[in-house]
Amino acid sequence: MEYHSGNYEKYMSTNVLKKFMVGKFNQKITSIAREAVRNAGSESLILDAGCGEGFLSCLISNDVPYAKVIGIDASADAIRMAGALNKEICFQQGDIYKMPFADKMFDLVVCTEVLEHLDKPNQAVQELLRVAKNAVLISVPNEPWFCLGNLLTLKNIKRMGNPTDHVNHWTYYGFLKYMEKFCGGGLKGYRSFPWSIILLYK
User: Fold this and answer.
1) What are the E-state strand segments in 26-105?
2) Omega of the bond prior to 144 within 30 degrees of 0, cis?
3) For residues 83 and 75, is the Cβ–Cβ distance under 8 A?
4) Is 1's pLDDT higher than 50?
5) pTM for the structure as a whole
6) 38: Cβ–Cβ under 8 A, 6 or more apart, which residues?
């Protein structure tokens, strides 16, 4: 059976507009990650939580060459594909609600396009914060623009553009407000259409 996931489709899409938007998003995420661990230097550790097939893990590893990147995902198929994509990155299967890492192990924890899929996003954010030493970088779809974009490409029409596996929906400002309750040392918001991005400081 051919492998399939929304994340895989996003990165492998041949649609020019989608490729442009994903490219801009990746540039924004890698730029924020590079700045977030700059002071940690060659000893920095970055976790890509919910790494999927490892596309973003590889981009971060290439753009922040002085940092070691580790990826974790619940899908064994995705982890196998990630491992084949980049042999130098450690990818492992695991539960985002209970990750097998020590407290404050990572200088930066990255979690993109994951919270919208989870029944217990609060619990997941708490776990991301537990393993982070300095900051957590999170992105989610910016609604209603994400769903409208799907409608424009005739995707998920019966669901008004909403993917079947998205159970949480946030506007940009709604996500900022949601993340404030986890805020210890401050937060900063970014946008990369059609996604919302938050850098949460501990």
Assistant:
1) 45-49, 68-73, 90-93
2) yes
3) no
4) no
5) 0.90
6) none
